[in-house]
Amino acid sequence: MRILLCNDDGFRAPGIEALYEALRPLADVEVVAPEHNNSAKSNALSLHSPLYVHEASNGFRYVNGTPADCVHIALTGLLGYRPDLVVSGINNGANMGDDT
User: Fold this and answer.
1) pTM (2 decimals)?
2) pLDDT tens digits for 22-72?
């Protein structure tokens, strides 16, 4: 199984590292997450600025964009395959959904 892991808190957030470690024994896991915290941005896309993908020393890839940008970039060519599952989290704090 191949899993794409993303979040909205950024690739340095402790939650994404913990979830990566929990999923890694079960599947091949690729992390593509925002460079910085993007909480409350829902499904926003960056339409008018260039996006760049970088790789951190731990192998996580990060994008100077939103969580939706990360998933879009991963699914449309970065990974070179379609993952079986896309997982988001672990969130830092409460998820407010439509309340934000």
Assistant:
1) 0.91
2) 999 999 999 999 999 998 887 899 999 999 999 999 999 999 999 999 999
Which residues have CB under 8 Å from 74's CB, separation 6+?
4, 6, 30, 32, 83
Q: Which string of b and e fits 40-52 if b means at least 16 CB within 10 Å?
A: ebeeeeeeeeeee
Taken in order of first residue, the domains within the chain and their CATH numbers are: 2-99 (3.40.1210.10)
DSSP string, 16-62: HHHHHHHHTTTSEEEEEEESS--TT-TT----SS---EEE-TTS-EE
Element (H, E) at 5: strand 2-6
